[in-house]
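protien #1 (seq + structre)
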Amino acid sequence: MAGGNSTFVTEFFLIAFTDHPEWGLPLFLVFLSFYLVTLLGNAGMILLIHRDRRLHTPMYFFLSHLSFVDICYSSVIVPQMLVVLLEHGAVISQVRCAVQFFLFTFCASIDCYLLAIMAYDRYVAVCQPLLYVTIMTEKERVGLVTGAYVAGFTSAFIRTVTAFTLTFCGSNEINFIFCDLPPLLKITCGESYTQEVVIVVFALFVMPACIVVIVVSYLFIIVAIMQIRSAGGRAKTFSTCASHLMAVALFFGTLIFMYLRDNSGQSSEGDRVVSVLYTVITPMLNPLIYSLRNKEVKEAAVKALKRSKLACRL
């Protein structure tokens, strides 16, 4: 445990949001409700895509995997955070901390890759519509998703092993909602330059690489949309990409703010608020964004509700 600067840390004490004990129960109830909405929304999206034949397209295939990963992503973080809020802090062993960090990094990496794949899918649909069916075959989309999972696992494994070869000493308190890299680096001791370089390199490989794919895809999409003569045609084409753009902006915006900035002089409270956005709010909003902004999903949801009401009457 943490007795002084020379004492090595073997377990951590998560104390996020415990500065104000009176906030514990209200925040617990709020985040619990968010978590339940996340589970119901994403599970509902997966079920809707599976049951409605009109949604058996590449875009919704990728969206179903995004919903599945968002369920896992949120489940890695929120239950632990609820314990911290309810008990005003929670002890977590270094092994459990490493497992949580790995699972979080794994899910976050897959989310990045899936959003990039979905941008590429929209590029093919808008810029090469006649070849869309031949390019986005079942074999192709399964290969893309499998590649996302494999790349996510590889990146998460290397980053986790590298991070937890560091030595932690001094205070074992982590003023954060889960075992993430920025708060862990604050309690390292000894030489950590090599490990930090490896961690940063892999972080830069995942996030900026995906952002480049998304930006390039949408540059081609914008050019294609501008060549459409009718305003109605341009609006209709852009509307097919609007929900994806909103999800991309929400997810990558918070990640960039958190990881690709100078952390010197930044408050822990600000970091905690941002971490809530990308671990709690984003997975909850994704199914809402895709359902409210998408005609096919809304029609499928209405059809499913009518079917369930008819079944209840019978």
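ok now protien #2
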Amino acid sequence: MCTGWCQERRVGGRWERRSRSGRVGDLHSWLCTFLWFSTLWGLGFPQCPESCQCASDTATVLCSDAGLQEVPEGIPPNTVSLHLERNYIRSLPESAFSELVHLRDLYLSHNRIESLASGALRHLGPELRLLDLSHNQLRQASREEFGATRAKTRLYHNPWHCDCPLQELMETLNLEPETVNGIVCESSVRGAGEGSRWEDPGSQGEHAGQPLVRLLDSGVNFCSLQRKTTDVAMLVTMFVWFSLVIVYVVYYVRQNQAEARRHLEYLKSLPSPRKSPTETDTLSTGF
């Protein structure tokens, strides 16, 4: 079991560890055992990322209040609970959690996250139980960014812009009931049947400051506006093309009429042919 630092030999029916000089070396034996167990420990538990603390017994990685500006690399793949709250992370790249297939709890609250890459959370496995994105700077999100996760999700205290993709996302996610009323519209588009569809670009919308869930429960449908706007855009496009065709036809007809008038005027301006005396006498004789 020992190599280099110590040697083993059988003395009086039992094994003794002796130093290279032949004397029993308790210190060397302890050092040998320590190095052996340290090697096993390093193989069983990967290195912890810088600025983080790793608890191998619970497979927990603590990176809270670490001044991080991005998700750290080198997170052990067997991590079950990952704490990244109270940092300065602004975005989640698509491959941020691609190797954490055993992750159950992901804490990302109190950061400055403004955007999620498409599929940023799609790699999280079915074992995920909690996803905390509260207290960030998220304004827009869609189903493509969250994938098929069924984890209990926290999205409150974000400056949400309420629109159709966010409405569809709310209908898909497993939102935490205790915090669902904290998902408030900081700005919004107008729903169908709510007056003019055209708003001042600087306006926050008439639903600003209201919980999104209550708006949806009251019958507000942000997706109806999107579908209606698409239909109107198609009608406007068809009308414009039809108008262009009519204008072209009218222009073509008028051009032909003008050309015909010019040709007729030209023919009228030509001198009429005069008959010779011989032709006149011939005609008289014939009568």
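The longest helix spans residues 222-269.
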